[in-house]
Design a protein that fits this description.
243 residues; mainly alpha; two-stranded antiparallel ribbon; 67% helix; globular
């Protein structure tokens, strides 16, 4: 792990993606099982969201492309490089569909740029997908109850919190999966370095997410009021005329 951070510092490679060979095969299998279950659940929720599931595809494709593009923007913050994630925004705008966008984006990054690995794609999807899904759930529960003056704070917490939770999950997977004989002190030091490097990114994404919420609340409030409500009655997506 310490070597991973040192190599990242030397080469500028981002460290939030777990590469092939870093964790045991059992963990890779568990990652695929967990992310596969969440992906199936997300697809089922989208399928039930509207009588015309295909109407969801344009928004899903657009935001998947946005997630993929944003993740390609790297910011050098020694001892590592970080990249934009926008997991909070993704959860707010896509709801449960955020898991699909995360899997698609990470798969393309792995095969096109070699960020992360195919064997660890499931773990990386869980690390990125769980914060996005939690952001969606928190937004759904608090948005309508939150006073207008506090909504920018809610957006900041969702944006920054999603980044910090992803870093926490990344550190937990690394610490729990690496062999015991490795130097524990160096592992903790490496995890702490990664966490510190992501603090400015968390603040940045918090500000961006808050600004996004404030902007959409002014120009298209109905978009946010329905943004993550997956039901046939309140779906944010256009539905086919059942007649």
């Amino acid at each position: 792990m310490f070597c991973l951070v040192a190599a990242a510092a030397a080469s500028g490679v981002v460290v939030m993606h777990i590469p092939d060979g870093l964790v045991p095969p059992l963990w890779c299998g568990l990652g695929y099982a967990g992310s596969g279950g969440l992906l199936w659940w997300s697809c089922r929720r989208l399928q039930r969201a509207t009588v015309d599931p295909l109407a969801i595809v344009p928004r899903l494709a657009l935001l998947s492309a946005a997630f993929f593009t944003a993740s390609a923007v790297y910011i050098p913050l020694p001892p590592a490089s970080v990249h934009l994630m926008f997991l909070g925004s993704l959860g707010i705008l896509l709801g449960e569909g955020a898991m699909i966008a995360v899997v698609v984006g990470l798969f393309l990054q792995a095969v096109m740029f070699g960020h992360g690995g195919l064997t660890t794609l499931g773990l990386n999807a869980l690390i990125m997908g769980i914060p996005a899904l939690l952001a969606a759930a928190v937004f759904r529960g608090l948005w309508h109850r939150c006073p207008s003056k506090g909504r920018s704070l809610l957006g900041f917490i969702l944006g920054a919190g999603a980044v910090l939770l992803a870093v926490l999950l990344f550190g937990a997977v690394i610490l729990l999966s690496l062999p015991a004989p490795l130097d524990q002190q160096r592992e903790w030091l490496a995890i702490a370095a990664i966490g510190i490097a992501h603090l400015p990114l968390a603040m940045l994404e918090g500000v961006v997410t808050a600004s996004l919420l404030v902007f959409l609340a002014k120009v298209k409030p109905e978009f946010l009021s329905q943004g993550v409500c997956f039901s046939r009655e309140n779906s944010p997506y256009p539905t086919a005329d059942p007649r």
